[in-house]
Specification:
Elements: H1 2-5, H2 8-20, E1 23-24, H3 25-32, H4 36-48, E2 52-57, E3 60-65, H5 67-80
Antiparallel strand pairs: 1-3, 2-3
């Protein structure tokens, strides 16, 4: 989880998804002006860490933030840094 959160572009993608609650991958890379392949790589890491959920709707994949998992990550980071 920490590795997934350690990259500024992944944090930017996560924040973008959070802002829109549910967003498809095309909107993510077009709005943030990131190549589709790079966006997909970063989303895969976020999915593997359990920080985002992917839901297929026909040919589109929509992403949402898994707030429970993000909260657990925040608690772990706070504990690590003694906050």
């Amino acid at each position: 989880i920490v590795r997934a959160l350690a990259h500024p572009l992944r944090l930017k993608i996560l924040e973008f998804i959070d802002t829109h609650r549910r967003i498809n991958v095309n909107k993510i890379y077009n709005t943030l002006k990131i190549e589709q392949s790079i966006t997909s790589q970063h989303l895969r890491i976020l999915r593997m860490a359990g920080l985002v959920n992917a839901e297929r709707d026909g040919k589109f994949i929509h992403y949402t933030v898994d707030y429970n998992r993000v909260e657990v990550a925040q608690l772990a980071i706070d504990h690590f840094y003694g906050r």
